[in-house]
Design goal:
- Two copies of one chain form a homodimer.
- By secondary structure, chain A is α+β, with helices and mostly antiparallel strands.
- Chain A folds into three domains: 2-85, Rossmann fold, CATH 3.40.50.20; 114-174, ATP-grasp fold, A domain (Dna Ligase, domain 1, 2-Layer Sandwich), CATH 3.30.1490.20; 180-360, ATP-grasp fold, B domain (D-amino Acid Aminotransferase, Chain A, domain 1), CATH 3.30.470.
- Helices cover 30% and strands 28% of the residues of chain A.
- The first copy, chain A, has helices at 10-19, 51-60, 73-80, 89-95, 98-107, 121-130, 158-164, 221-237, 271-274, 279-287, 313-317, 350-360; strands at residues 2-6, 25-30, 42-45, 63-66, 115-118, 135-139, 149-152, 170-174, 180-188, 194-196, 200-205, 208-214, 242-251, 254-261, 300-307, 323-326, 336-344.
- The N and C termini of chain A lie far apart (41 Å).
């Protein structure tokens, strides 16, 4: 099949790398001639809301997907009128707006941290009466990798926070002293079959994913079934087709949903080597109408993002068992340039192998 | 690094798919605009001995490799004068000629089936006095997938066989009633380090590889160490850099070398999912000066070639645990169009999973 992808970053690159062996061809809409997907896909160069380009994309492919969620919903809705868009516009619309997202979670009985939408300084002041400080002021839109967030420690900082966030529609969200961050990645196919990967433990640094451990260690069966239940409800509610990630906090022993991503997700990169079927292949299976593959883990995986700078490749490859994935991007502090995954059986040598990996990879944040 | 590949078939395609995640770029010399490598590499369209194209290739890449061995040695020798060619010309030269190959094996103390080079009908008649019939008349050059071979059952068929083979330089080789066909794939890096994959059992139909089972079951430790010893000697003798495959027969409990391939090999495709590091990645690691990765197997693998025709993709993907690799080639009887690999732990369900795979894949031979 000919698959269109809106966005040409590393997720598009890894989708194409997973899809070429299945015989699929890829046409990628991106404004960037040097996009990470360029070596493995044909590019359609231009803006995401260019009507002419979107018509071309629709005419030339069998199905369209997207690799990030900050896309013009109206333009994609028009696209979806002439070619199957999977996942659909609804998932995109909801995930673009933190208020919509939280409302969706709440309507499905999925718990979230206390929050209030605010659209003015007055509303922020009111909200701060109800949401205990310290809290986070988050833009409703365009937040990723820790962007679009301002912490508020005390009531005298409300004005300053409102200035810093840019006076745009926001949420004031209770700052949860969470015990752990988890994510769950799952796929739903055209027939409605759902398969769920094991829960993953994630560690962030300044809002950027640094490390994933899969399956997340020492999980109660209660947490596990909560997470599976929540992601199941979401996939059903959205009549979803493809891979979706749900990020959660563990707070006082229970899950609170933080946000969802209607796409393959960084916390699922370990599946490339650590699971029977990678998230990239399962996303493609789903959107092309094929049955899903097994989401079982092979042993334990440790995924480390390469952020801001890259060690020399031979050094990375000298780490026994390291699976290296570079994205072909120019180095820049805070930018995700690649990732490395170790897969092993938990046992005597596993912690030291993980330790070796960690010691070889420095990160550079802005 | 920028890697040049001479040849654009499925091996080039899978090399590029393995190399893009390592940040390498690929420039592929092929006469075929629709070559399997086309979706994942830049093509340099033209003939393998076009001096102008070879100069362009040398100027634009850091290292050159090849994905099949029936290439003009002189042209590649000139290429090797201006850019590193890995593996080198010597391996290419020897593997192109069955007589050179057998002589090389013999010089290294690697046993082969009895054979005699023949260049005329008279020589064939003489050879038939020394090589017990039934025997195989094989062209010295350009043999692959069972091509370039004529069986000779009895002395009265010598004239006919000489006609059928085209009166070209040949070997007359004793037709061994072998018990099994095995192959061993190994890699040697720029520093001379060698890593060896587990031995593989292969089943051919009409000279075309149908099935590989890895690791080969029920091997004596003697056979195993013989095979490792032979491939080790070959790699050392050729000062080899990259992946090499050695195909062997088991005859009366001992190994006889049949032929070698100075490249990644069909009987190593199972390593994509079944080994810690795939043969494609290890070939690239070697030729780009990086250290080799582990060749350990993960459980047991069963690789089946898709020959002549393809079942519908959703049917293939419905086989639990099937890893599907299509090559983007037009269907034609006898043509390798893709392969499917199952990886599992030997146990109760493994034989039935293999059986299911086998029952879903028909092959079409000419």
């Amino acid at each position: 099949m000919k698959v269109g992808i809106v966005g040409g970053g590393q997720l598009a690159r890894m989708l194409a790398l997973a899809g070429v062996p299945l015989g699929h061809e890829f046409l990628v809409l991106t404004p960037d001639r040097d996009a990470p997907a360029a070596p493995v896909a044909e590019l359609l160069l231009g803006d995401y809301d260019d009507p002419e380009l979107l018509r071309t994309l629709a005419a030339r492919v069998d199905v369209v997907t997207y690799e990030f969620e900050n896309l013009p919903v109206d333009a994609l809705a028009r696209l979806a009128a002439s070619v199957p868009l999977r996942p659909g516009v609804e998932a995109l619309r909801i995930s673009q707006d933190r208020a919509e997202e939280k409302a969706c979670f709440t309507a499905l009985g999925i718990p979230v941290a206390p929050y209030r939408p605010v659209a003015s300084l007055e509303e922020l002041r009111e909200a701060a009466q109800q949401i205990p400080l310290p809290a986070l002021l988050k833009t409703r839109r365009l937040g990723y990798d820790g962007k679009g967030q301002v912490p508020i420690a005390s009531p005298d900082r409300l004005d300053e926070a409102w200035e810093r966030i840019g006076k745009v529609p926001c949420l004031l969200e209770s700052k949860i002293a969470f015990e752990r961050e988890l994510s769950i990645v799952a796929a739903r196919d055209l027939q409605g079959e759902i398969r769920i990967y094991p829960l993953v433990e994630n560690h962030h640094e300044r809002g950027i994913l640094r490390r994933s451990i899969a399956p997340a260690p020492a999980l109660s069966s209660e947490l596990l079934s909560q997470a599976e239940d929540y992601v199941f409800r979401l996939l059903q509610r959205l009549d979803y087709v493809g891979v979706l990630a749900l990020e959660c906090f563990v707070h006082e022993g229970r899950l609170l949903a933080n946000e969802m991503a209607p796409r393959v997700h960084n916390s699922g990169h370990w599946t490339l080597e650590g699971a029977d079927t990678s998230q990239f292949e399962n996303h493609l299976r789903a959107i092309t109408g094929a049955p899903l593959g097994s989401c079982s883990a092979r042993g334990e995986s440790r995924m480390l993002n390469l952020i801001g700078a890259l060690p020399p490749l031979p050094e990375l490859l000298a780490i026994e068992g390291a699976h290296v994935h570079l994205y072909g991007k120019e180095a820049k502090p805070g930018r995700k340039l690649g990732h490395v995954t170790l897969v092993g059986e938990p046992g005597a040598s596993w912690p030291s192998r993980c330790q070796e990996l960690e010691s070889r990879v420095e990160i550079f944040l802005p």
